[in-house]
Structure formats: structure tokens, C-alpha cells
Amino acid sequence: MTAAAEAIGQADARVGDLEATLRRLASELAVLGRPAPSRLALEPGQLAGIGAQLATSADAADGFWLMRRATAATLDSLQNAFAAVDARDPDRALTAISAAEMSRATVRAWPGNLLTLPFWTKATGDLLAALRSLAIALRDHDVAGARAAEARYRSAATSAHQADVALAVAIAEGGSAVSDTPLAAAALALRAVQDALGEVRSILV
After folding, report:
1. CA torsion angle for 160, 162, 166, 168 (degrees, to 10)?
2. Are 61 and 178 in contact (CB under 8 A)?
């Protein structure tokens, strides 16, 4: 996001040159009795403003996407832990659980305020704790402990679907909150440039 903000802001210096080129082309076409291209739907300083907006939100956006990647890493490691437990491989399960706990800690440490995200971190933490207990019981050949851990896991798993929904809502809300306005403005600016270039190409063909 920071790199995009810098690139858009730097492009502002070229808006004036592009407008001058379009005016010159319009004059030349007028001599030939041909219609002029439309005026560029951008003003000098507009891209600089969009770049500044993006820069302002860059830290928040970068932090959000770091958190988003951590949720994906947590779910991947959780899936690996499930597979290892099913394969009766407690050492591999414990390694995957530790990885999931680390990435989940990154999510919990994120300073944003999304109402549904704590539900996901809580439900995921319950699943990981149950899986850890189960993996340890398997490793230690503790039959009673394994039964208790399985019961604990089944209880935690009842919230899995709601947790998935909570995460989806959090990701949607968080992504739009940190990037929608400046990105929409950037998209409109890019469209204006594309439209102008398209008209020029149609004239030159």
C-alpha cells in the first residue's frame, strides 16, 4: 500500500503534461476537421491527494493484511494438526498446533477493533487447546486422557461454523474500513487515464 501511494503521488507530475498533449492534439485535429479527444477527467494535484490518502491509511492497511495472512496461516496449521491426529502422529500434530498458536497470537495482537474477530480467536483457541490435549494423550498412550480430550474437542467444534462466519465478517469489514475510499478514488483516476489513452489510440489508428 505504501508503494502504491508513492507511485500514485509521483504520477501527479505527469497530469499537466498529458493535458497539454491532449490540447495540442485537439488543435491539430481541429485543423483537419476531426473531433477532438475528450478532456482528461483529472486535475493537477488530484493524484497527489489520492496518494496522500493512501499513505495515511497505509500503516493500518498493511497491519490488517498482516493479520489476515496470520488467520490463513492459523487455519492451515490447524488443518495440518487435524490430519496428524487422524494419522496418529502426535509429534507432527504438536508441531502444527504450536505453529497455529503462534499465528493466532499475531491475530490477537492486532490493534484493530472488529467486533466478530474475538469470537473467532476464542473458538480457534478452544479447538487448539483440545487438539493439544489429544495429541499429548496419544503420545503418552493415555487412553482416558484421549477420551476426555476428544469430548473437549467435540464441544469446541460445535462453534466452528459460527467462527468461520465471524472471521468472514471481520475480514470484510476490516478490509473495507482501511482501504475502500482511497482505493476507489485511485480506481476512478486510473479509469480516467485509460479512457483518455483509449480515445487517443482510436484517433491514431
Report:
1. 80
2. yes
Task: Round to whole Å and give the CA distance between 135 and 141.
Answer: 10
Q: Which residue type does 67 have?
A: M
pLDDT tens sequence across 145-200: 999 999 999 988 888 888 888 888 877 776 665 555 555 555 556 666 666 556 55
| The three cell numbers locating residue 116 | 466478530
Q: Is 112 helix (H, G, I), strand (E, B) or coil?
A: coil
* Helix extents (H) in the chain: 2-11, 15-31, 46-86, 90-109, 117-139, 143-157, 160-204
Residues 112/63, Cβ–Cβ less than 8 Å:
yes
> Of the candidates 69, 41, 81, 65, which has an alpha carbon nearest to the alpha carbon of residue 194?
41
Q: How far is CA 3 from the centre of its chain?
A: 16
201/124: higher pLDDT: 124
Count the neighbouring beta carbons within 10 Å of the beta carbon of residue 25: 16
> Which phi and psi angles does 98 have, rounded to 5°?
-60, -40
Q: Name the DSSP letter for residue 41.
A: S
| CA 162 distance to own-chain centroid | 21
Q: What is the pTM of this model?
A: 0.61
Distances (CA, A) of 111 to 114, 117, 122: 9, 11, 16
